[in-house]
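Tutorial handout. Part one gives the primary structure; part two gives the three-dimensional structure as tokens.
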Amino acid sequence: MSPHKAGKVYLLLLLLSVAPAAQEPVAWREAPDLVAVFGPPGPRAASYSAYVTALDLDAVLQRLTGDATLQRPPGAWTPRAVLPADAFGQTGAYDRWALARLYGARGPRVARGPKGEGGRVTESWTLISPYPDATLQRLEPGTLLIVLRVP
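Part two.
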């Protein structure tokens, strides 16, 4: 191989080694049992869905950075430590005291934001980590995504 060609190959390898790797998508698993616990009762529940992943909140947010459908108004997608009642809201049928005991002094971290296309919001996302199982007996180390579809 000529020195000129070897230099081009070396440069190409160098560029590939420092180029940012493409982010893998988050592997979500549906969690309808959590919608039943934290979603509203009655017909409004049909607008909600829930998904979980083994990834922590920071890893999920990192992988979502390139998602063009996530809208980014000020304060959106910023993780915050909150009280359990603030993370899960007041519409679900869950036992608020059991949830508070489960988290104890360590509250969940939450990030919220809108998703949509063409400037129109079609979904509101709430990411919660760690998240409780449906029986409120243990905290799971990954992230829960609660999606509210906006009509």
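Part three, for discussion. The chain is about 30% helix and 25% strand. The chain has one domain: 25-149.
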